[in-house]
Amino acid sequence: VSSPSAASVPADRLGERFFAEIREQPEALHRLLEHEAEYGEIARSIADRRPSLIRLVGHGSSDNAATYGVYALGLMPHMTAVRDSISLTVYYEAELDFSASVVIALSQSGRTPDVVEYVRRAQELGAFTVAVTNETGAELGEAADVALPLAAGPENAVAATKTYLNQLAALALLAGGIAGRGAEIADDLRHTADLISTSLSRLEAEARPIATSFAYVGRMYAIGRGLEFATAREVALKLKETCRIAAEPLTATDLAHGPVAALDSLFPVWTIASNDESLPAVIEGASRVRSAGATVVASGSAADEIGAAQHVLTVPEAPSPLLAPLLSVVPGQLFAGALAQAKGLDPDRPEGLSKVTIAR
Amino acid sequence: VSSPSAASVPADRLGERFFAEIREQPEALHRLLEHEAEYGEIARSIADRRPSLIRLVGHGSSDNAATYGVYALGLMPHMTAVRDSISLTVYYEAELDFSASVVIALSQSGRTPDVVEYVRRAQELGAFTVAVTNETGAELGEAADVALPLAAGPENAVAATKTYLNQLAALALLAGGIAGRGAEIADDLRHTADLISTSLSRLEAEARPIATSFAYVGRMYAIGRGLEFATAREVALKLKETCRIAAEPLTATDLAHGPVAALDSLFPVWTIASNDESLPAVIEGASRVRSAGATVVASGSAADEIGAAQHVLTVPEAPSPLLAPLLSVVPGQLFAGALAQAKGLDPDRPEGLSKVTIAR
Fold it and tell me: For the residues of B317-333, what is the DSSP string, one character each?
């Protein structure tokens, strides 16, 4: 797909594809749910193996989704999931014991070279390997024992949105299925799709004026904790990709262990606050940010509880805390798109990126 | 410890404590090695348990050391180590199965609240827990099954240096001991201490003029891969803490999956290049950085091989690739100190930080 340069695109058409795919997310989620039975079947075969470890791998947005998977799977009884090191297996050829491991490999294109290579070696070393991808027929799906469809549909924007959302849903479905709660989670996901659908226009209207006031911002942190750390990572990535902001994700707690020292009034912080057990840590982190003189934007279902916030973007409460990150990421996506426009950048045309990344 | 404000400190005395502790590192390393036998004993008792998983926890620099531990332990046959989620256990009270796990908890002070709490719960749930800390008598040491001394000696600078180095050495000793190679690693560590000692003055002299030219930099990435990703994390943290730079660590590969889009000529990248299997990925990442118009600083034993670099800080080759990160971090520490001075900041007095972080 070739694009004209940002300068030649009328301001109101910058990021057309990016916004179209953000708005398409409820529909994309429903498309994934048509595959509920397949997900249930694979979840049962994972559960039957009683893995001692579930190893998640991916790069970019897919790695952010893997962060969510660590929590979604870890919240199910007796399950430990980790974002595995790709380089130990692919570069160092470490003699890892994969015999009691299940691998879940995430890639939009199914062609990320070192994710494909990781899956090949993990399988040789005894892992049961599951690919979750938009392109089940590509190399990753071929290499894995089974391939599950993300069903997000063709993603034309370089910066992923609907793929990320469907990856979260896919991991929630697998986690739920493994714990024998697949049908419940699928119903909750359908409800979540509707909640996103009904709040999109309002959130876009609310995010735009905040973005305008951020037009000259060059540095940000995004903070979250627990389930919402994945959201912090994903929002920070969208800001780097589409707005050229040096936006680093941090847990609300790690913020206090050094990074808070860099903050000032020109260095705002995006905060993700949901109603769960990690909320007090996020409230405390946000108040440190304010003490440092930095602006706080609060997003999420508990955004109102961030007393330190100058800007608030509240999303509906998810049907269950597990699914909160699917709603919490939406204001960040919309803000990134609007801020790119305010900066005169085209979110559909980030510098130096292409849709399929073949970097090793 | 109270400090005068940066403005009242003569420029050549800014960061006195920080520099003193960087220079003390070889000596601190030798102090740790006096405890070789204790480390060997605990390593054997870890090996005897044949853990299916080693879970590392810490915040800030200790978490960066944990990143090193993932690789140092993962490179030993049949061992999987991960940086574990603290919030799953401490906030969400997830029903994790710790019965086949060993926990290694890292904390300079031995008083980081949620690390202490994590260890208490992990132990109740069946883990064998090892504290590695400068203060073995503090809460963390009390809570854990065993406490190993870091022996770095009192750390007065807020930004950790010698503690981080000794944490890497402690993890290398444990990894080596588990694999029956403890004596070999201990000898290599003694040799490493000497290599640091003989290169410190040269590196300080070389880092200073580069730092001067970075006086107005506000955004950086630090990239590494594999064993050196820990170094990228630690250098980025020093730059945030002491220089107030928005410095994000990235793997050389993740750089290409989005973040490269934010780079420009005012957004330089610190690169860590060591002679190991991950070097080609780092060389490729650095060349992407140059294509984006950004300045590259190359550090590490293979810094010369980064063709894209405008600045090169070469360290001696470590006795074994496993120990390269102990040498590679030193130029980053010295650069951060010199850059803070060039910015008129006092590295001994970062904004909003204190030596012991009690944030939850």
Answer: PPSSGGGHHHHHHHHHH
Q: In this predicted model, what pLDDT tens digit does every residue of A52-111 receive, in sequence order?
A: 999 999 999 999 999 999 999 999 999 999 999 999 999 999 989 999 999 999 999 999
Phi, psi of A140 (to 5 degrees): -60, -45
Cβ contact A258–B244 (<8 Å): no
Nearest CB among B100, B225, B261 relative to A353 is that of B261
- Residue carrying structure tokens 């085209």: A346
Which residues of B fall within a CB distance of 8 Å from A94?
74-75
Quick check: B359 and A256 CB within 8 A? yes
Max distance between CA atoms of chain B, in angstroms, equals 56
Q: Extract the runs of DSSP E, i.e. beta strands, from A42-96.
A: 53-57, 81-83
For the stretch A146-200, pLDDT in tens is: 999 999 999 889 899 999 999 999 999 999 999 999 999 999 999 999 999 999 9
Q: How far is CA B199 from the centre of its chain?
A: 19
How far is residue A327's CA from residue A300's CA, in Å, rounded to a whole number?
7
Residue A204 is which amino acid? E
Global pTM?
0.96
Handedness of CA B47, B52, B54, B55 (dihedral sign): negative
- Whether A225 sits inside 8 A of B91 (CB atoms) is yes
Q: Which residues of A touch B221 (CB under 8 A)?
A: 246
Does residue A252 contact residue A223 with C-beta atoms inside 8 Å?
Answer: yes
Q: How close is the nearest chain A Cα to the Cα of B61, in Å?
A: 8
Structure tokens at B74: 């993962």
- Run of H or E residues at B29: helix B25-33
Q: Which residue of B has its CA nearest to A80?
A: B96
B74:A82 CB<8 A: no
Let me know: does B310 contact B297? Beta carbons within 8 Å. Answer: yes
Q: What is the ipTM of this complex?
A: 0.95
Alpha-carbon gap, residue A164 to A40, rounded angstroms: 20
Name which of A243, A246, A280 is nearest B267 (Cβ-Cβ): A246
Residue A157 near residue A24 (C-beta atoms within 8 A) = no
What would the mean pLDDT of B243-248 be, rounded to a whole number?
98
Check whether B2 has a pLDDT greater than 60. no
Mutate to test the interface with B, among A70, A87, A111, A219 (most CBs of B within 10 A): A87
Closest CA to B34 of B218, B203, B166, B127: B166
DSSP at A296: E
Element (H, E) at B52: none
Q: A222 near A250, Cβ under 8 Å?
A: yes
User: Does the distance separating the beta carbons of B277 and A91 come in below 8 Å?
Assistant: yes
**Cα–Cα dist B211/B335, whole Å:** 6
Q: Give the pairing type, strands B311-314 and A53-57.
A: unpaired
User: Do B226 and A92 count as a contact with CB atoms less than 8 A apart?
Assistant: yes
Cβ count near B83 (within 10 Å)? 18
The pLDDT tens digits of the residues spanning A113-155 come to 999 999 999 999 999 999 999 999 999 999 999 999 999 999 8
Contact B353 A71 (CB under 8 A): no
C-alpha torsion angle, residues B59, B61, B62, B66 (rounded to 10):
100
Residues of B in contact with A116 (CB under 8 A): none
